Amino acid sequence: MKTYDAIIIGSGQGGTPLAKKLAKAGWKTALIEKQYIGGTCVNVGCTPTKTMIASAKTIYTITQAHTLGVEAELKSVDIATILKRKSDVVDLFRDGSQKGVEETENLELLWGKAAFTGKNELQVMLNSGGSEIISAPRIIISAGAHAAIPKIPGIEDSGYLTSASLMELTEIPKHLLIIGAGYIALEFGQMYRRFGSQVTIVEQGERILVKEDEDVSHTVLEFLQQEGIRVICKSGVTKIDNQEDYLLVSLKDGQELPVSHLLVAAGRTPNTSDLNLEKAGVIVTKKGHIQVNEFLETSAEGIYAIGDIKGGPQFTHIAYNDYIILAQNLLANKQITTDRIVPYCMFTDPQLGRVGITETEAQNKGLNIKVACLPMSKVARAIEVGDQRGFMKAVVDADSGQILGAAIIAEDGGEIMSVLQMAMLGRIPHQQIRKMIFAHPLYSESLNNLFLTLEK
Ligand SMILES: Cc1cc2nc3c(=O)[nH]c(=O)nc-3n(C[C@H](O)[C@H](O)[C@H](O)COP(=O)(O)OP(=O)(O)OC[C@H]3O[C@@H](n4cnc5c(N)ncnc54)[C@H](O)[C@@H]3O)c2cc1C
Ligand SMILES: NC(=O)c1ccc[n+]([C@@H]2O[C@H](COP(=O)([O-])OP(=O)(O)OC[C@H]3O[C@@H](n4cnc5c(N)ncnc54)[C@H](O)[C@@H]3O)[C@@H](O)[C@H]2O)c1
């Protein structure tokens, strides 16, 4: 049996840098990966989607060009070239990451599937054949999640797509029906609508993005509908009939929709079921996520979990930040916790940049708050570039002036949100941002005016 100082299962955006960091600190480290270096983000998540969304944005820009006095015509959408460009970018990121792993001293990359055989022991079913038993006093589980497939009669025979397989489809769907109205549904829905698909989104909740404030969810719905996307909420798919050349999708309200393709975007299931976690004494939650404390420690001593597999917000920057926390705790005996401000950005167009608490959450907690709001139609930069969709909103503590949360729906909403995130971290009150100097005429400059609304 081979022994290491640390073993990491999964080479995502937390697992890979952690493996390199521990190895560089002199720990004999093994990184186990069953498929591709880079995990979901690089191979089938953020990188390919944002690359393809750039093509969709170009289509939109062409269709809007006349409003800026430019006559332009969209001739065709070349999905083969869009997919090729996407694959090239993925390869670039993946290869770079793999090279980095292979060149790191003290780090051994094992291609295969890991499962626990004991407390500190794993069996790796090697992709090259055979298996290996390895052990370490520290094991970090970073094995991610996969698309959840709801149990719907007929779904198995429907040839349904997930976010991963849709990005391999060499045709543009005639009519794409999407189950779910979360980030994946909305990003893909808008992208494929712009590519030319008819798009219908079916959501079980009472509205899209149900965790966001109602005004946020309403504004996002509005700009999606403006592009001709149909959104059906408080509904669900009850049955799918695979007809000869189309799918007949039945909805809860009795509607029957003939569609060409089905995308399942109904959340993600943690990759815990094949890990034999019970052999190591690692407890999972009812939803199958690994239970961790604020130090990312599992119920078993010496075993940690980072990224999507542990539940909570599922973002690349969270997996990466988990690595930052754990590396310091393991290597420098620190006691850093996961108590952190969580930013995120949905890459629709306009984007939804979000950080901290929502207005509704603040109200439910009984906090003494003020809410600043500014429509993008009052933002100089938005007027100049000709895209006035969306608004900026910030929730502030009425007593201290500290920013508690923000939602920015705007062309570069994520970047503007990040400015407010920095203010939250630096504890800069809104009164100071109101008078702060920003370069004119940036979007961020309008944070002056956003907080001016609180003085009126
Ligand atoms: C379509 C899509 C778009 C997204 N866009 C964004 C975005 O724009 N921004 C953002 O922040 N987040 C985005 N996300 C979420 C983000 O991709 C994830 O939160 C992030 O990748 C999670 O990283 P992770 O390391 O926890 O898991 P993963 O990246 O999934 O890595 C887990 C790795 O473990 C490997 N593995 C699993 N089981 C085993 C095993 N038993 N043995 C060996 N290896 C194993 C897997 O092959 C995989 O490589 C998106 C997700 C999707 C699906
Ligand atoms: N820009 C980004 O950061 C980004 C982009 C894409 C994905 N992601 C991450 O990927 C994860 C997965 O995304 P997602 O959109 O699949 O999940 P999600 O959890 O964000 O949304 C799933 C939606 O599907 C609905 N749903 C579930 N089952 C359903 C059913 N049977 N019928 C109808 N509706 C149903 C849910 O009510 C929910 O609204 C997210 O947690 C997100 O963090 C992030």
From TrEMBL:
Key words of the record: FAD, Flavoprotein, NAD, Nucleotide-binding, Oxidoreductase
Highest taxon of the lineage: Bacteria
Ranges for domain FAD/NAD(P)-binding: 4-321
Cofactor requirement: FAD
Cofactor note text: Binds 1 FAD per subunit.
Disulfide-bond pairs as recorded: C41-C46
Binding residues annotated for FAD, in chain numbering: K50, D308
Keyword flag NAD: yes
Segment forming the signal sequence: none
Amino acids binding NAD(+): G180, A181, G182, Y183, I184, A185, L186, E187, E203, G267
Active-site residues annotated for this sequence: H440
Pfam families: Pyr_redox_2, Pyr_redox_dim
Domain Pyridine nucleotide-disulphide oxidoreductase dimerisation stretches: 342-449
GO MF annotation terms: flavin adenine dinucleotide binding; NAD(P)H dehydrogenase (quinone) activity
PANTHER family to which the protein is assigned, alphabetical: MERCURIC REDUCTASE
Family listed: Belongs to the class-I pyridine nucleotide-disulfide oxidoreductase family.
Name of the molecule in the record: PF00070 family, FAD-dependent NAD(P)-disulfide oxidoreductase
